[in-house]
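Project outcomes to date are best conveyed with an example. Our students and postdoctoral researchers have been running inverse folding experiments weekly, and each run begins with a structure described purely in C-alpha cells. The record below, which covers 63 residues, was selected by the lab manager from last quarter's runs and is presented without edits.
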C-alpha cells in the first residue's frame, strides 16, 4: 500500500499545495514566505490524505 500511497502523494500534494497558494494569494498575502509556507502545509497535509485514499482504494479492490 505504500507504493500506491507514494503515487497518490505526487498528485495530492501538488493539488493541496496549489489550493493553499491560491488561497494565500487571494487573501492578499503576496510575500514569498507566505507562499512557501502555504505550499509546505499542503505538502505535509498530503501525507495522511494520500494514505487514507490509498487505504480506501485497497478496500474497494479487495471487496
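After processing, the design step wrote out the following sequence:
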Amino acid at each position: 500500500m505504500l507504493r500506491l500511497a507514494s503515487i497518490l502523494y505526487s498528485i495530492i500534494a501538488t493539488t493541496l499545495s496549489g489550493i493553499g497558494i491560491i488561497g494565500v494569494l487571494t487573501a492578499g498575502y503576496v510575500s514569498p514566505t507566505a507562499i512557501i509556507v502555504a505550499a509546505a502545509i499542503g505538502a505535509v497535509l498530503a501525507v495522511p490524505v494520500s494514505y487514507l485514499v490509498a487505504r480506501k482504494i485497497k478496500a474497494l479492490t479487495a471487496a
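Helices lie at 2-27, 32-62. The mean pLDDT is 96. The training component of this project remains on track.
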